[in-house]
Specification:
- It is built from 24 helices and 22 strands.
- With about 625 residues, the protein is of the alpha+beta class.
- It has a 7-stranded mixed β-sheet with strand order 10-22-21-20-11-18-19, sandwiched between helices. The protein has a 6-stranded antiparallel β-sheet with strand order 2-1-3-9-4-7, with no helix packed on it. The protein has a 6-stranded antiparallel β-sheet with strand order 12-17-16-15-14-13, with helices on both faces.
- The protein has 4 domains: about 240 residues; about 80 residues, Calcium-transporting ATPase, cytoplasmic transduction domain A, CATH 2.70.150.10; about 120 residues, Rossmann fold, CATH 3.40.50; about 120 residues, Calcium-transporting ATPase, cytoplasmic domain N (3-Layer(aba) Sandwich).
Length: about 625
Amino acid sequence: MDQAALRAVIGRFPLVAATVAAGIVVAVLLGLGEDLAARWTASAYAMVVAVVRSGSMFKALLRGRWGIDLLAVTAIAATVVVGEYVAALIIVLMLAGGEALEDIAEGRATRELRSLLERTPQTAHRERNGGPPEDIPADAVCPGDVLLIKPSEVVPVDGMLLTAAGSFDESTLTGESLPVEHVKGDALLSGSVNGDNAVHMKAASTAKDSQYSQIVALVQEAAASRAPVVRLADRYAVPFTLLAFALAMVGWYMSQDPARFAQVLVVATPCPLLIAAPVAFLAGTSRAARSGIIIKNGGTLEQLARVRTAVFDKTGTLTHGRPTLEETRISTEAAGLITADRLLQLAASAEQYSSHVLASSVIDAARQHGLDLLPGSNATEHATQGVTATCGHHAVVVGKPGFVRSVTTGFEEADTAGGQLAVYVGVDGHFVGALVMRDPLRNNAVRTLDALRRLGVQETLLLTGDAQGTAEQIASQAGIARVKSGCLPGDKVSIVAGLRKRPVMMVGDGVNDAPVLAAADVGVAMGAKGSTAASESADVVILLDDLSKAALAVDIGQRTIRIALASIWTGILLSIGLMIAAVFGYIPAVAGALLQELVDLATILNALRALRSGGRGSTTAMGGSPVIAAGLR
């Protein structure tokens, strides 16, 4: 190790370095036969550390957290008093080493989260008027700029591929391990990594508004959180501390030797309670990030582990959210006055000003029919209901039946078969027809619902603003027990608030899902290109447009909690066993301190298991969980 690296280690772990230095000095003094000097040096150093630790102990007491530092400080003081100064040094090293191990484990556990932050694009290569590319800050890219992406470079902003074809690594964004092939005209996500060939792209947004910047913001929020399971570990520390002092007193009473009191406390220092739980939670959060799931805070992991009710939006969540046009129906009143293509053109022109997921499908249908969109004015989107706009000198209204009926004459309800939906259109105050579309169920929806039931979800519910017939058809296909149709955003919030089997997980993707995602115990926003409002209000953001990730998130939460609690109890039971042995004098103070260090190491290694997938039965597609693999195979 060179001097720079050594200085970095000392700067990162000063207490470890100081304790090792003190141990070397004590060893040299003992080698020189200066036993008294060695004893005083070790004892003085240990007591200084104990006094410093007392400060954090009193602060913890004021916050209602006691037991962790109290045992450590008492153990150091007791070993010094009875002359076990070597054991006192080992305890100090154990505490310092435990904190160092926690820091290292945190770094390992949050590696995937940090990789997202470190890969934020800083520069872009812009080309203008056929000239050579110029390097500019990524923040200076404007929509419409033509950018050169060199091999292995990170795409700086969202945009469209101009080159005939290209291969991109999107694993950081979506969890997809294989390169993704794109062709000219395909959308490119910022944060993806170009393959072996240089490509050109057209910027569609600024760096600030690109998907990767939003993901980075979510990751920073996730990294800043503190898990409630740490408080759970604190609660275990209270009875553990009382038991440790009781056993220490019993040992002292039985032996009539105060050294026995110190020997018991040496093996009682509860580092597993300090370290195991937060490391497991960080590992679980990082494991989720590697699978394309951003969990914003540790408390959400605990809620995910206990989910009993799963609620789903329909369009874009259970279904693909990309309905295809099956039929354009002209109303009786408008027959002979408007053609199917003209109706579709006017509807699509108005839908340009809507953020609803159906709007893009109507626009795509018009383009597939070779229709040009008309410029519009006086456009107004009526949340969850529809849109009005003046297009081609006509007042156009597009939306739900109730909304269109209220502003037009001659309204006719469209007959739809199971799985179909209708978008209603009015022109100049008259109802002119409906666009009948179909949005099929996702291929993995049934298997995802089965997996959730295997994970302990007892109740499933579909909440949608669509018609009852369409909603019931989709729910029946997916295996969802209950349906609430025709819901406004406020209705969804009220329904979720009234559910009894909690915690409740709500899965959605659109702007109108934001309120109910915030109201649920666990809000899950789907899709890397989903609504910003939905992502901000959700507790979990699934970066890949994959419904099965909702079940994987529940599985990761359950596995993380199991590992955290197993680590806590492993440390507690091992410490209790060592304390009982120490009560009867089988473990000297120095040996006890070394054994306790092994207990710390074992609990940390166990907590880091939360980084791994579930086991040998895991599948890459499902993120590595055997129960998910069983449910979705």
